[in-house]
Amino acid sequence: MRQGQGTGVAAAPPGPQGRIGPMTTPDPQPPASNTPSDGASTDTVHRSAAGIAGGVLLLALVGWLGVDALLTGDGQVPWLALAGLLLLVPLIAAFTLRPAVFVNDDRLRLRNPFRIVVLPWAAVAAFRSGYSNEVLDASGRKYQLWSIPVSLRGRKKAARRQNRAMADGTAAGADDPFRATTDQIMDQLAERKEARAAAGTSQGEVTVRWAYEVLAPALAGGVLLLILLAIG
Fold it and tell me: What confidence category does residue 119 fall into, taking pLDDT thresholds of 50, 70 and 90?
């Protein structure tokens, strides 16, 4: 996904939780502790409904073709199918089913395709929306929110609703709800950061962990596929 020059996300009044597309669901976690952790309190989880649906369809198609080739193929075909499955299944799952944003009072946790990034609220500098939604830490490093994609179509629909409401004289002014769902979520994240950055449990350093459970099988499948292609 292209990264563009972003514009700051203005804070807006808190929107309702539990929006769909991206999906927002509660994720029970252990009670809060005195230090930031992945289970600091009950999480709100933002995921992309469209991404999940697309991932399920792709996995079903790849699985059907791959298993059929494994069972009925001749010569190197079963091995090629095995290598392809090892390579494609983790990558498809990583970019469609895996991405999620977990939010609680202490920190923001990003589960992106190849990394898990934990940002205590005190370490968050700003949120930015351009061609993608991003969060910047205090050192200026940026991390993409894969499960909260920018929806240009959603913004256009929201703008049309606002224009119609203004033409009818029913626009709600500064508190109007005419914003794309993902923009509202970004507003909520910015508000949570402002409200919780000074809390004692929101202090700490940014941590990043690579998703070896995705990288290892994909790498194994890629190497096997190259070997099979090389030996013909």
Answer: very high
